[in-house]
Each structure stands twice: as structure tokens, then as C-alpha cells.
Design goal:
Elements (H helix, E strand, L loop, with lengths): L9 E7 L7 H12 L5 E7 L2 H6 L3 E3 L5 H8 L15 H13 L2 E8 L1 H16 L5 E6 L15 H21 L3 E6 L6 H4 L14 E3 L7 H15 L2 E6 L33 H14 L5 E5 L13 H20 L3 E11 L2 E8 L16 E2 L3 E2 L3 H9 L12
Parallel strand pairs: 1-2, 1-4, 4-5, 5-10, 6-8, 6-9, 7-8
Antiparallel strand pairs: 2-3, 10-11, 12-13
Length: about 400
């Protein structure tokens, strides 16, 4: 919906929510750049620790930061403003709105995932109910790549690049000292990040040899059989497992491992703060294959989110432009919306940035297309066509083989 007053004067607030990423500051700086110089904008406030900072009136002024410093901030991983896991309900959002109204904030930008877009939606609806003219825009961010109506989301490509690099190295390690290695990767409901491990394959027998994503039901007996077959044939086996794998009833395997599982503010079972899943799968395989079998497990955990050495240049560029697009739309008179990145062409690679309704993305989840999942334990090579332009070049591996 377009406002009747495109030249709306007032202050702006920008917040960064949820798990930080390697490029979330690119979006922050993109919004600041898009707002700077406009006669409509008086001050640009950065919410210190997102919505938590808003209700505490804890802000960092951004409008006078020199461009060279902004550029350094943009290239720095993690959330420069600080983030929050608070899940605002209607009462919480009322407090947010009261602060916005008191400070004459007319432009509200919230960088985050689907829960963040829902917060933006609630605040926007409160403004309308109170006949307060407010531009509310959600800027996409999530390494899970699970926002609907988006081809991909800022943060994902850099995390996927980390996963690919990690598996390239782990595959070489596994060649040197053969055994079974399990890597647990982030992904509660969507398996995009786990599937990205397939980029490590450069030779016919490269790992990961097995890939398990939450879009396919996980059967422990089939898992044992899958690993035994690969291990028997190659003498080694490298495995990628999403933290969100679940059984045929839809129950996450993690919840079966502890009587009192920890939950976050959103009511989700904590999956990334423990190595329990990797330990459990290792024990299952030892019981099946024998305790003398060399089996190890690692949980990548938070390392995937802000690893400075694996930033995708495509990811950084698109995150910046998504922030600028939100500012551009707000200043042009659009009242609200979410910025969606949609692929126009793959060769040459090209995307466009579209405004979609907040209700079209809020509290919804996109999952990996079933066409990419093979037999519930692998990813089709065609997924490389989707990932390639996002991740960019990877190290080339050369092997010495016995004749």
C-alpha cells in the first residue's frame, strides 16, 4: 500500500534481529546509505540489541558516521548493533510502538528472518490502528535460507561457503586417516545449509558420501545400513547431518536424547548449543559396526554464521542492495513491505529486489525442494547449479593416488 504522504519527515530506526551473519552489517549500512541525504530523515537511530534496545530507549546514532567507517562496519561480520532473541507479542509490540511515536520515528527497518518480519508486521498494524503514519520494512536475513518468496536470503551464501570449505578439508582429513566422520550442520526445518556440503565433491569418491536433511524423514536403521554400505565399499565415510533431522512422526531426533531439552524464546528446542546429536549417532554406529571402528563427530554450531574467512562476495553485495532497496521504497512513499531477492537468470546470474507484503513472509518457512533430495540420504548434483553463483569459487583439490 502506498502512503498519501511520500514526503514524510521524521526519524528512522534500524534493528538487527536473530542470529547474526557474515553480511548482516551490509544490510544495515545499505539502509543508512539509502536514507542519508534525504530531506525527510532527521536522525537515524540504530536499536542497540534490536527490539530489546527499543523498549529500553537504548540507541546508537548512525546519521553522522563517515562513509569510510560505514564501509568497514559493512565488511565486519556479526550484528554491529547487537541482536536479540526476544519474540515480541502484541503487548511487547505496543511498547515498541510507544517509543517510536514518542521519538517521532516515521521509518522502521528490521533486519532478520521470518519471526522478525512478523514483528515488523505487528508494529505496522499498531501504527495503522492508531492512525500513525509509519513506514515499516523488513530486510531479509537468515543463514537457513528459509524465507518464502525468496530465491535465497542474505547470510546463506556465506554460511554455505563455510560449510563447503569445511567439508573440503574434512574430506581430505578423512582420506588421510580413513574412518567415519559425522558433521552436524545448522538447519531446524530447512536443509539448504546441510545440502551445501555437496559442493565439496570434486572427485568421484569425495565426501560427503551421505547427506541427511530435515525435509526427509530420518530412520536410524536405514542410517546404519547406509553408512555400513559406504564404509564397506570405500573404507571411509563422511556424513553431513542437519541438526533438525526428525523421525517419520516428525519428532526431532534431538528431543529423544534428553528428558529436559532447553528451549529458546520462540519455543524452539535448542539444537546448536550441544554436541548430543553427533555423539548419539556415533554411538549408534559403534554399536552397529564395532567399537574398534574409528568414528568421530563435530557440531559446526555457531561457527557457520559469522566466519570472516568465507564471506561470499555475491552475498555481501546483495545484502547491501537489499538494505538500500528498503530505504528507497520507504522514501518513495511505500508504507510497508519485505524485500525479496528473486532470481531472474542463472546464466548470466541476475537477481531483482521486489517488495512483497509482510503477511506473505511473516512466520512462514521455505524448505528445500524435494527434487534435490535423493533416496533420503543424498543431494542431486543439479543443486550445484543453484548454489554455484551464490557461493563463488572454491579451492581446487589435487590428489595423489596409488596405481
Amino acid at each position: 500500500m502506498t502512503s498519501q504522504n511520500p514526503l514524510l519527515k521524521g526519524n528512522a530506526i534500524i534493528g538487527q534481529s536473530g542470529g547474526p551473519t557474515a553480511v548482516i552489517n551490509q544490510s544495515l549500512v545499505g539502509v543508512v546509505e539509502g536514507l542519508s541525504g534525504s530531506p525527510c530523515i532527521e536522525k537515524i537511530f540504530g536499536a542497540h540489541h534490536a527490539v530489546s534496545g527499543i523498549i529500553k530507549n537504548d540507541f546508537i546514532e548512525l546519521q553522522d558516521i563517515p562513509h569510510d567507517r560505514l564501509d568497514r562496519i559493512a565488511k565486519t561480520p556479526s550484528a554491529a548493533l547487537g541482536s536479540s532473541r526476544d519474540k515480541p507479542d502484541a503487548e511487547y509490540c505496543k511498547k515498541i510502538f510507544d517509543v517510536l511515536a514518542k521519538r517521532n520515528v516515521r521509518y522502521f527497518f528490521y533486519i532478520g528472518g521470518n519471526d522478525s518480519s512478523d514483528t515488523c508486521r505487528i508494529v505496522n498494524e499498531l501504527a495503522r490502528k492508531n492512525k500513525y503514519d509509519l513506514r515499516s520494512f523488513h530486510v531479509p536475513k537468515t543463514i537457513d535460507n528459509d524465507l518464502v518468496n525468496n530465491d535465497h536470503t542474505p547470510g546463506f551464501a556465506s554460511a554455505a561457503k563455510f560449510v563447503a570449505h569445511a567439508f573440503i578439508g574434512d574430506n581430505l582429513d578423512n582420506r588421510s586417516l580413513p574412518g567415519i566422520k559425522i558433521n552436524i550442520i545448522m538447519g531446524r526445518h530447512a536443509g539448504f545449509l546441510t545440502a551445501a556440503s555437496m559442493l565439496a565433491r570434486q572427485h568421484d569418491d569425495d565426501g560427503p558420501h551421505l547427506i541427511y536433511v530435515p525435509e526427509a524423514a530420518f530412520d536410524i536403521d536405514q542410517f546404519k545400513a547406509d553408512v555400513a554400505e559406504i564404509y564397506g565399499r570405500l573404507g571411509r565415510c563422511l556424513i553431513a547431518v542437519s541438526e533438525g533431522i526428525h523421525n517419520h512422526e516428525g519428532t526431532p531426533i534431538m528431543t529423544q536424547l534428553a528428558a529436559n531439552v532447553e528451549k529458546d524464546a520462540h519455543g524452539n528446542v535448542q539444537l546448536s548449543g550441544t554436541g548430543a546429536l553427533g555423539d548419539y549417532l556415533s554411538e549408534v554406529l559403534k554399536e552397529h559396526l564395532g567399537t574398534d571402528t574409528r568414528i568421530r563427530a563435530d557440531t559446526f554450531g555457531y561457527l557457520q554464521r559469522c566466519f570472516a574467512g568465507c564471506v561470499s562476495q555475491t552475498d555481501a553485495h546483495e545484502a547491501r542492495l537489499a538494505g538500500r532497496k528498503a530505504a528507497e521504497l520507504a522514501l518513495s512513499g511505500e508504507r510497508d513491505g519485505s524485500i525479496a531477492i528473486q532470481r531472474v537468470s542463472n546464466n548470466p546470474y541476475e537477481v531483482e529486489y521486489k517488495r512483497i507484503e509482510l503477511t506473505d513472509v511473516a512466520a512462514k518457512t521455505q524448505t528445500l525442494d524435494p527434487k534435490y533430495i535423493v533416496h533420503g540420504n543424498n543431494i542431486d548434483p543439479s543443486f550445484r547449479d543453484y548454489l554455484g553463483p551464490l557461493v563463488g569459487e572454491l579451492p581446487i583439490v589435487e590428489l595423489l593416488r596409488a596405481r
